[in-house]
Amino acid sequence: MSKSFLIAFLFIQLTAVAGTVDTVTIPSTAMRASFKAVVIRPDSYKKTKASYPVIYLLHGYDGKYSDWIRKVSYLPNYADAFQVMIVCPDGHRSSWYFDSPVDSSMRYETYVAKEVPEWIDKNFRTIRDRKARAITGLSMGGHGALFLGFRHRDVFGGAGSMSGGMDLYQSRNRFDIMKRLGDTLQHAENWKNYSMVNMIESHGGVNDLRILIDCGVDDFFFSSNKLLHEKMLRLKIPHEYIERPGSHSWIYWENAVKYQLYFFYNYFLEGKRGR
Question: Per-residue pLDDT for 2 more than 80?
Answer without folding.
Answer: no
